[in-house]
Amino acid sequence: MLEGIMIGLTTALNPMNLVFVVCGCLVGTFIGMLPGLGPMSAIALMIPIAASLDPSAGIILMAAVYYGAIFGGSTSSILINAPGVASTVATSFDGYPMAKQGKAGKALAIAAYSSFSGGVIGAILLLIAAPSLARVSLSFHSTDYFALMVLGLTAVAAFSGQGNVLKAMMMTVLGLMLSTVGTDQTQGIQRFTLGMIDLLDGISFLLLVMATFALSEALMAILRPKAMTDEERRKEQEAHSNLGSMKVSKEEVKELVPVVGRSSILGFLVGVLPGAGATIGSFLAYGTEQRLAGPTKGKLFGKGSIRGLSAPETANNAAATGSFVPLLTLGIPGSGTTAIMLGALIGYGIQPGPRLYIDQPDVFWSVIVSMWIGNIILLILNLPLIPYIAKILAIPARFLLPLILFFSLIGVYFVSFNTFDIQLMIIFAVAAVTLRLLDFPLAPMILGFILGGMMEENLRRALLINNDSWSFLWERGLTLTILTIAVLTLVVPMLMPLYQKWRKNADRAGEGG
Amino acid sequence: MFFTKRRIGAMLLLAFCIAYAMLAQRIPLLPFQADSAFHARTMPEILSILGIGLCLAMIVLPSPAEYVELKGKSWFTALAFLVLMSIYGLTIRPFGFVLASTMLLGVGYWLLGERKIWLLAVTSIPVAVAFWALMSIGLGVFIEPMPWFLRG
């Protein structure tokens, strides 16, 4: 492990890579602060640049953008109550009330320290967990991988929230369907190309991500009523005109240390679960701390509690780190963001999975080490720069939105130099906006799209090894166990409301009798 | 009301899944592949069944009472942006990168309410030129900057 850390340090501390970390943190913070744009859009916008770099530098840049975007999202949550991403929604519960009380500076400082601690503790846990899991997963067969991918996809649907399971499952299937467009990898047969030469290579991953996230988010912002935007602008100007002191007292630090410890571990563990991610991590940490705070301090939650601010901030960064565990060790992304990173890795010709640890230790370790460095740089850069960064929120949307559209279109065009891609992107963006207006989640679709090709390949291989028999699904113990977990993950949350209803009725009947 | 957000989405996706299932049947197979357990149609067929089943479940099962709100949204502006982006795709080659990008940005700012000509020019031309320079000179990715009538 020490040798690995040294390899990682040598790569991550390379001056050029340090420049990428600094730029990534700044760009990520900037994009993450813009309401509506989150880490997925930020990373998607970076892919064309990362594609021109070597794999380690590219992944380091994207990881830095990821952290920066999460921190940026917290800033807009605290200052204007407009979370850039779902994972910072819980931050606004107490961050925004603090800003309204004139303690915006302190709230931003606590958010920065908590993010830093969550990220660093998460990276230490990743350092321990990733190599161990990678070693274990070396014994996995293609049948197990197929089962793991099914688990990853069902978990995404299961964690999408009550009432959204069917929608998320459908979006996953839609992503899998889109992944089948193009020439079949093994037999060379054209599928769903509609006779178009431009579709022979399938739908570009970058095109789909840019269209469904960056482009559709900008179009959604254009669609939103103007009155809302003016109101937001007024709030923004009020918020960043007076940040107040950024000092955190000794008593407050003492109060926050256990919160940070608990939330880091909780966030990391939730992040490791495929599909759970930073959003669930942050809400779980918030809820846990509220229960642990006791009746007096618990009442302060939602009214400007520093514990309520620190817990989700710590957990979402730790979860972001945790989501790298399945990506680096199994090649299965744990979240939409890591799905995009997986797509980028595949673009480099790197197949993440247990072999990554052995075949390309420089990429494996430099990602882990760059997380520490990224978190340190994020803290050093953002704390003194917060008052200036906050001013970014004052850039009028009428300038920002066309720029986002321009960078999205150009990002795709500069990779393929094919104008067909621009038109296809517009079609996908229209479909994405329609699905967003109907409240259908898009992240499961990206996950399905990324895993589709690998899933089909593993299924084909499993059937080939088993002489065309589907019996591998129940004959191999590990495969069966993973598939059973997948089914339970999906079925249990669907049955829980029915069970609760049944218990309520039973209790009522008991009281009546 | 029957037409909730979920049901409308499910109906649209059902139409897509049916079209997908029909196209899946047109995937050509070699004679010896027809009887094998896995071929080029296997995955699309499984996905078609799953997709259609899920869409029907969303339509039939009770749905949350959430309805589409069409009022109060800037539909015209969004549509204008779609047309603008499509025109950008068509003009980027003949008009060259700088002119086409300047037009996209300038018209985009204008559509969102900026009316000062000098501000439109200052915020679009330098961005297009700087981005072209960054890509062509900085990263070595060349793209024709000039319109067809000015090329040598």
From TrEMBL, chain A:
> Any transmembrane segments, and where?
108-130, 142-159, 166-183, 203-223, 265-286, 330-351, 363-386, 392-415, 427-451, 478-499
Locate the DUF112 domain: which residues?
18-447
* Keyword vocabulary terms for this entry: Membrane, Transmembrane, Transmembrane helix
Q: Please report a single Pfam family linked to this protein.
A: TctA
- Please verify whether the record's keywords include Signal: no
- InterPro entries recorded: DUF112_TM (IPR002823)
Q: What is this protein called?
A: Tripartite tricarboxylate transporter permease
Q: Which organism is it from?
A: Maritalea mediterranea
From TrEMBL, chain B:
Where would I find the DUF1468 domain in this sequence? Answer: 8-142
What Pfam families does the annotation carry? TctB
- Which residue spans traverse the membrane? 42-61, 73-89, 95-112, 119-143
Query: Which InterPro entries does this one have?
Result: DUF1468
Cleaved signal peptide residues: none
The entry's keywords: Membrane, Transmembrane, Transmembrane helix
Q: What is the name of this protein?
A: Tripartite tricarboxylate transporter TctB family protein
Q: What organism does this protein naturally occur in? A: Maritalea mediterranea
Lineage runs: Bacteria, Pseudomonadati, Pseudomonadota, Alphaproteobacteria, Hyphomicrobiales
